[in-house]
Specification:
With 255 residues, the chain is an alpha/beta fold. The protein has one domain: Vaccinia Virus protein VP39 (Rossmann fold, 3-Layer(aba) Sandwich), CATH 3.40.50.150. 33% of the residues lie in helices and 23% in strands. Strands 1, 2, 3, 4, 5, 6, 7 and 8 form an 8-stranded mixed beta sheet that branches. The radius of gyration is 17 Å and the shape is globular. The N and C termini lie far apart (37 Å). 49% of the residues are buried.
């Protein structure tokens, strides 16, 4: 499938989601089903105490399949990069932890999402945050400039996931950590499903298998690779019951 077609489908869908959240006419929806607290992918990811005090539109635009900020112990003064930052929920949560001496970058390619995220940043008063426009396959940051890379259900959307992981490795400092939530598949997935643009944009068709994800991380240079499945999706109506799951994925750049 052509990478440009995938990119356009993703931008169209997420731009529409951002516009719906901004106008108050709709809630977030990235899965094949309608998103809600019961959605098999996006439901019940954050504790109430996590989201307390965040702008409501940052919470409404949350499109993830996990909570990457819960995967890692962020420290004061660290530099964090969120790949595919959307409405900014994980950026703002990370900003609380790294404090005023730290910095959090959010990278997204969709103008509407960036506008929404920057509005949420202003409402939250987060002065240690910067949102960047760009492709996660070509991160606009220098080598060895980031302590932690996080991401929430976004790497599966990239046409070239190996390039995303190589870029993440490049910008991480020696000893830096990679901690993401993403969709993976287990078993067999039909070629027709993998060619469905709507399911690519819905975080399904582009998912990697567990072994392939690990292999790509190791090829990119990472060590200590772990893939932990925590939620198997049910009710997707894709004739793939039990095939897709959310996973916590961790790795490190060697010292």
């Amino acid at each position: 499938m052509d990478g440009r077609d995938i990119r356009q489908a993703v931008q169209k869908q997420y731009g529409a989601i951002a516009a719906a959240v901004t106008s108050g006419t709709g809630a977030s929806c990235c899965a094949p089903s309608c998103c809600s607290t019961e959605d098999p992918i996006t439901g019940n990811l954050y504790k109430q105490e996590d989201t307390a005090g965040l702008p409501k539109d940052a919470v409404a635009a949350s499109l993830g399949c996990g909570n990457p900020t819960a995967l890692i112990d962020l420290q004061e003064g660290q530099v964090v990069l969120d790949l595919g930052s959307g409405g900014g929920i994980d950026v703002l949560l990370s900003a609380r932890r790294v404090g005023h001496t730290g910095k959090v970058y959010g990278l997204d390619m969709t103008d509407e999402m960036l506008d929404l995220a920057r509005a949420n940043q202003r409402e939250a008063g987060a002065d240690n945050v910067e949102f960047l426009k760009g492709d996660i396959q070509g991160i606009p940051l220098p080598d060895n400039s980031v302590d932690v890379v996080i991401s929430n259900c976004v790497i599966n959307l990239a046409p070239d996931k190996g390039q995303v992981l190589r870029e993440a490795f490049r910008v991480l400092k020696p000893g830096g950590r990679f901690a993401v939530s993403d969709v993976i598949f287990r078993g067999e997935v039909s070629p027709s499903l993998q060619q469905d643009l709507a399911l690519w944009a819905g975080c399904i068709a582009g998912a990697l298998g567990e072994a392939e994800y690990k292999e790509k991380l190791i090829l990119a240079g990472f060590t200590g690779v772990e893939v932990e499945i925590w939620r198997v999706f049910e009710g997707l109506a894709l004739q793939a019951e039990g095939t897709f799951a959310s996973a916590f994925i961790r790795a490190s750049k060697p010292e």
